[in-house]
Write a structure and sequence with these properties.
alpha/beta; globular
Amino acid sequence: MEDTRLISSFATSVEASPTMAMATLAKEMRAAGKDVLSFAVGEPDFPTPANICEAAQKAIADGHTKYTPASGTPELKKAIAQAAERDLGLNYDPAQVVVSNGGKHALMNAWRTLLEPGDEVIILAPYWVSYPAQVQMAGGIPKIIQTFGHNGFQPDLEQIRAAIGPKTAAILINSPSNPSGGVLTRQSIEGIAAIAQARDLAVVSDEIYKHILFDGREHISPAQLSDDMKQRTIIVDGVAKTYAMTGWRIGWLIAPPAFAKCAGNIQSQETSNPCSVSQMAAVEALGGPQQSVGEMRAAFEQRRDYIVPALNDIPGVVCPNPGGAFYVFPDISQHVGRVMGDAEVKSSKDFCIYLLQSALVSTVHGSASGSEGCFRISFACGMEQIQEGVRRIAAALK
Ligand code: PLP
């Protein structure tokens, strides 16, 4: 039987995440004995803090190994609402929280709840690789607005206004951003909020990096701006990046009550609850000591302070200084068009493949994030690896 008889046209239209694809390529090379350094995946190198692991062990010992309510345990929803009060000064009822299998799943629930077929979502590029694919999987249409490193990846509000039409349902923001590390200024967030209010749009605010901010910056959520903005903002967050808990798969959305109820219904049909043990661990992460959050943040800032000038010292590399998260997104357009190794580098993807093959350094091409001529380096790995990686990139670009 032909494969096409088994596979829908929808399934064939979905591509694997390019980050995962680059990471898999690097893993295969490593399995073949090559000393590949991975800068492709956005995963903190720190272990999950001990108090969180102990809470999970206790959860197992105490028998918390059964189904929980589909949209999360009352304890975790309460801890998330309390964290929103502590971190954002916002008061939410725990019923406004839907706990999912990671922030990625929470985003998917948000799109499924929000979008009618053909609805449009404004997405700022460079964007996290999964945003357009997720919007499309939920029947929506991504509308991309470019931003650039020279002004810290702030959007041109006029371009956003011009892109909005009768089918626009939402503006998606992600500050600090993956892949750029850009942090939206108060002015940008207020400008986006004003547009959302004037055109009656939702704002989906992916705040998964909100605790990783540099140079004393403070996080601003659009939901903090006014009561009206709180009513039209869907906050997406999770424990993965803040608490080095990528594998535990706990994320959530916070939304107006009716929205949260529908998102919870969708999840109850699709996956039921996220892992019961992970939920107990997340209660400890959010409500327990927060010291490790500050320590990891400080380590990321130290790494940023090393990697940005080191990359800018390489001819033809222009690296903006990220205000948060753990990524740099250098412009390498001066290298596109060069012959490197045996072949012409025609794109950021060719550039990253060249780096992988000749420097044994794995990164992600900017075109995967809608920004050709750039590439992403995750500096969530240790300082020694960063130093060696930069040395190899510099040597490969000589
Ligand atoms: N949002 C952004 C911008 C991310 O970078 C990621 C992970 O890389 C996520 C959401 C999803 O995080 P998770 O599903 O691991 O909680």
